[in-house]
Fold this protein.
Amino acid sequence: MIHSARKPLLTLLMLTTPLAACAQQPESAPQPAIAAPVAAQSSAPQLVTGLPDFTALVEQVGPGVVNIEARSSGRQSTRGQMQEDEIPEFFRRMLPPGIQMPEPGQGRRGVSMGSGFIISDDGYVLTNHHVIDGADEVKVRLPDRREFTAKVVGSDQQYDVALLKIDGKSLPTVRLGSSATVKPGQWVVAIGSPLGLDHSVTAGIISATGRSASAEQRYVPFIQTDVAINQGNSGGPLLNTRGEVVGINSQIFSMSGGYMGISFAIPVDLAMSAVDQLKKSGRVSRGQLGVIVEPLDSAKAKGLKVPDARGALVNQVLDDSPAAKAGIEIGDVITSFNGSAVNQSSELPPLVGALTPGSRAKVTVLREGKPREFTVTLTELDEGTGTAAAPSQSAPGAPSAAPATNALGIVAQEVDANARRQLGLKSGEGVMISRVTGTAAREAGLAPGMVILQVGRTAVGSPAELNRQLASARPGDTVMLLVRRGGATTFIPVVVEKAD
């Protein structure tokens, strides 16, 4: 929902001399000596000089930026879309002619207003998936007021990219740049239709690159900017100072629904790789490695005997996946994929997803602190792959728990058949925690109902096996436990307590 902004109170900082100091002083009063200002001396070079003028850029690029109106018969609004009855009254008065405002509570067709840009003079238009998602009719309006009915060639929800086609010749186009060269601090410009206001121009800088903005779009290394972006900017171009498109404006981070200085753009290199696939087949396919990873921290790094917290920690390897066939194991830390460094877990999915099924890639991991290299042949990503949710408590008739005879104070029991089905566990895989008596284990987050799958790199399938694996733990050691909780698998480091 878009909230109308209240007019803020303006605080004026007066830079004039205070009135008391302006009072005329007696002639006899001595005038204080004023020391001559001393210029600051610095040997540092001037790093920023002047401010850019974007007028030439806007005049050149503007004709290729379009307004998109998507109409659907349904009443629901999808992510990022702006419905007619969600527009504040101030902006209602400024909407383009022809848009009729429904009365409150009146049934109406859903209208999504967004932006896009023409990438070829024969009429291919790029925008966001969420702008046209579920639309029965899509209209594209050019700055010269020409209007076309567009055909949706294809779209992809994960990348949030949609390719449209309009019937036209010698249409104005934008120039495509490369998102691989963008760096934090560079100037960028956005052109679009925020809140239905055609061809609004805003500017700012690149705040960060390679951002993971949402779990739903883990395959997109977003470009973060502080360019003013609002609803309706979706699908519009993010431009460098050469007037080249480096991204597609897609999302904003907001507490109010409006601009807060954090916006996200899809890298144009990624978008154009999707365009090639959409033209050929109408869909996008991504490579799959077949691992689930989690972030590293200093405690986990110590428990895994790796030098630092860089990399992606593997906590699950799918059966018959490329990773499993290559020999990658749970507990490996992936530090490089296909020649690109992996410094944090969120960097791995975009690198894998950018490759097509059948591609071969080299994966470098740390295992017990030593590097190993594997060659994998990627399969096609199954978007529906998931993990069953864990039960909140043991089912009636569960096996009795074994006493806690281990250094962590964990009382475990065998996993009953019902819980095993829900969690997707194989026979003899894992033990369920029934009670935690150790302080360090509780503080680490271990709780009844969780299932311990491994101690370090060794799988456990019975309470007795758990106790045997923990028998060698000494006070001060960091023990890595692979735990299934809440439908997710993660490593939990626990430091063995010292005796009082």
